[in-house]
From TrEMBL:
GO biological process, one term: bacterial-type flagellum-dependent cell motility
Name used for this protein in its record: Flagellar hook-basal body complex protein FliE
GO cellular component, one term: bacterial-type flagellum basal body
Organism in which the protein naturally occurs: Povalibacter uvarum
Recorded GO MF terms: cytoskeletal motor activity; structural molecule activity
Coiled-coil portions: none
Gene behind this protein: fliE
């Protein structure tokens, strides 16, 4: 008999639906993460451009430091493009998905 009482005690009501018009949870969102990443990539590219311009102007700059800055900027841009490609691919997969 105790098993029947345990089953009877379970509520069979569906939970209330989530409020669709509620504001999103506070905190850093995905858009903020992308903006921060893009800002870092932009800073890396600007640093490489500055180093390259200083080298071209004849200022005392080490060639290996300029090459390191350029390579770091190239890799940052390449990684961000790959992230963008994955996001676009995921979005297209979602739009093709049948409901």
């Amino acid at each position: 008999m105790t098993a029947i009482k345990a089953v009877a005690a379970v509520s069979w009501e569906a939970p209330a639906p989530a409020d669709l018009h509620a504001s999103p949870p506070a905190g850093d969102g995905f858009a903020r993460l992308l903006q921060t990443g893009l800002g870092e990539v932009n800073a890396s590219v600007r640093a490489a451009e500055t180093a390259m311009n200083n080298l071209a102007a004849g200022k005392p700059v080490q060639l290996h430091e300029v090459m390191i800055d350029l390579e770091q900027a190239r890799l940052s841009v390449q990684m961000f493009v790959q992230v963008r490609n994955r996001l676009v691919e995921s979005f297209l997969d979602l739009t093709r998905m049948q409901m």
